[in-house]
Design goal:
The protein is an alpha/beta fold. It is built from 17 helices and 24 strands. The protein has 2 domains: 233 residues, Rossmann fold (3-Layer(aba) Sandwich), CATH 3.40.50.300; 242 residues, 3-Layer(aba) Sandwich (Rossmann fold). The strands form 6 sheets. A 6-stranded mixed sheet has the order 6-9-10-3-11-12, sandwiched between helices. Strands 18-21-22-15-23-24 form a 6-stranded mixed sheet, with helices on both faces. A hairpin with a 7-residue loop joins strand 13 and strand 14. Helix 4 crosses helix 5 and helix 13 crosses helix 14. The chain starts with a strand and ends in a 5-residue tail after the last helix. The relative contact order is 0.11. The structure holds adenosine-5'-triphosphate and magnesium ion (MG). The site of adenosine-5'-triphosphate has 18 residues, from strand 2, helix 1 and helix 14.
Length: 500
């Protein structure tokens, strides 16, 4: 196979952390090439080197046989290497066209040629089949549409290589379908695609080959037409893991004890008359399509968003209608939010401090917070969630994406909350750590606590829940007991088809 991009002996050493070690492999022109590996394996680091975000400590990158040394991301973009990432700079106040042209505006004299800018952008949006306008403000668009802007931008810049780092984590099913259609088209045009994801079904659907990294070293490149999921996971993890979300212990639900009762909760976000009960020891799954407003309901229960009607009872006692997260946490309810990157941790804190944030009282000795106790806790809980590196002094911001999420999980597991609301608990989390998190959930309920798990992953909801509630467009759409779990029925509730 012809080598289009070639990584040759790439090593990357961060202060105190070797992220990549002598990595060599190549990517062919016009293929969709997956980069696989557990959290912290070095996937994003390798892409960042390709994109000129920072140099490799050692090693070379070749494109079409010539060594490239990009000084910065702009340099790489000019060469035709573009990326579509979650945390890309998009300025919400600007229009789609203005955002597209940032850094490469067509000039008319010294003034921006606004008309040309909009026309060119609109042409690209049409080509991608987008249903929004070049003149729309970006801030109002969904995650999927923002991503389309990045793809349009890559096309505008005549990219020859486009990389995607976990592109589907905030997309609706329909948006994922559109994205895959576009990736197939890009491929037909000879554009080379690099694709990072933790979702195996996606990898098999859209990618041709996969290169696997483990702990910063290159393991192998596999042709996906000739490989099985087991094989990929084996190579990624290097040990046997349970690939399935499944209960290993019997249910711990105590049907006679209601720990949380939500009664006709209504909120300005658009959800209405949400009522349900959570039992002691229960794992209650909340399924729905993106936009069903599950996150909004959880935030309202937690006091992070206001409500306009309805009540929440915790162990039979009403929570104040105007509640704050602080009050709710004190009662014993924790929320691991879906946007862990934005809401979850303090930037210049290390792991021990971040993990201790929601349970400070536990580490008090007299009047002072005891650092040693924080570190012990960090070590212990860090191990449970599979944190890597599990180092209390490591700055959380320097962790890989998935590991930063584990810190947030660890933070809430350190509290004595007896109700944990987990919003998409395994989003961005690798397959090995997923199994650990499932085990942990079982341990939590076995200790008499209760869990609400919001998830868009069918296998996870079906595998782990005692009971499933389905939401659709801000309303309760269905409820199923474990012996009634059937994917088809759950989907029907979620999309609103007729019930037989
Ligand atoms: N700026 C940095 N300073 C120090 N260490 C870093 C920095 N960026 C990344 N690392 C470390 O490099 C290693 C590889 O991280 P990287 O982000 O490439 O992982 P990844 O494979 O993308 O993981 P994930 O699936 O969680 O996104 C990790 O151990 C991480 O802690
Ligand atoms: Mg990453």
């Amino acid at each position: 196979m012809e080598k289009y991009i070639e990584f040759q002996n790439i090593t990357k050493i961060f202060p105190g952390q070797k992220a990549l070690s002598d990595v060599s492999f190549s990517v062919a022109k016009g293929e969709v090439h997956a980069l696989l590996g557990e959290n912290g394996a070095g996937k994003s680091t390798l892409l960042n080197i390709l994109h000129g975000m920072f140099p490799a400590t050692e090693g070379k990158v070749f494109i079409e046989g010539k060594e490239v040394k990009f000084k910065n991301a702009l340099d790489a973009i000019e060469f035709g290497i573009a990326k579509v990432h979650q945390e890309i700079n998009i300025i919400p106040e600007l229009t789609v066209a203005q955002n597209m042209m940032l850094g490469g505006e067509p000039q008319k004299g010294v003034l921006l040629d606004r008309k040309k800018m909009e026309q060119e952008t609109q042409a690209l949006l049409d080509r991608l089949g987008c249903d929004f306008k070049a003149s729309d403000k970006v801030g109002l668009l969904s995650a999927g549409k923002k991503q389309m802007i990045q793809i349009a931008k890559a096309l505008y810049l005549n990219a020859r290589v486009i990389s995607f780092d976990e592109p589907t984590s905030s997309l609706s099913n329909a948006e994922v379908k559109t994205l895959f259609g576009i990736i197939r088209e890009l491929k037909e045009q000879g554009i080379t695609i690099l694709y990072i994801s933790h979702k195996m079904d996606e990898i098999f659907e859209i990618c041709d080959r996969a290169s696997i990294l483990r702990d910063g070293t290159y393991i192998t490149t596999l042709d996906l037409k000739e490989s099985t999921e087991e094989e990929l996971v084996q190579n990624m993890v290097g040990r046997d893991v349970s690939m399935f979300a499944q209960r290993l212990k019997p249910s711990c639900r105590d049907n006679n004890t209601v720990v949380l009762k939500v009664d006709n909760l209504t909120g300005p976000a658009g959800f209405e008359n949400i009522s349900f009960e959570l039992h002691k020891g229960e794992i209650l799954g909340f399924f729905g399509l993106v936009g069903a407003m599950r996150t909004e309901v959880m935030r309202a229960i937690f006091g992070a968003d206001p409500t306009t009607g309805g009540m929440v009872y915790y162990n039979g006692e009403a929570l104040p209608e105007k509640r704050t997260p602080n009050m709710v946490v004190k009662r014993g309810i924790g929320l691991v939010s879906e946007n862990r990157k934005e809401e979850g941790f303090v930037k210049n804190f290390d792991n021990a401090d971040n993990i201790a944030l929601a349970s400070l009282k536990k580490y008090m000795k007299g009047m002072f917070v005891n650092r040693k106790m924080k570190e012990d806790n960090s070590n212990k809980v860090g191990e449970t969630v599979g944190l890597h590196p599990n180092d209390p002094e490591f700055l959380t911001v320097s962790l890989s994406g998935g590991n930063a999420q584990k810190v947030i999980l660890a933070k809430w597991l350190s509290t004595d909350a007896d109700i944990l609301i987990l919003d998409e608990p395994t989003k961005g989390i690798d397959i090995g750590a997923k199994a650990e998190i499932y085990k942990l959930m079982e341990e939590i309920v076995a200790s008499g606590k209760s869990i609400i798990m919001v998830s868009s992953e069918m296998t996870e909801v079906v595998g782990m829940s005692d009971r499933i509630l389905v939401m659709r467009e801000g309303h309760m759409a269905g409820e199923l007991e474990r012996d009634e779990f059937e994917e088809e029925r759950i989907i029907t509730y979620a999309v609103g088809g007729s019930q037989s």
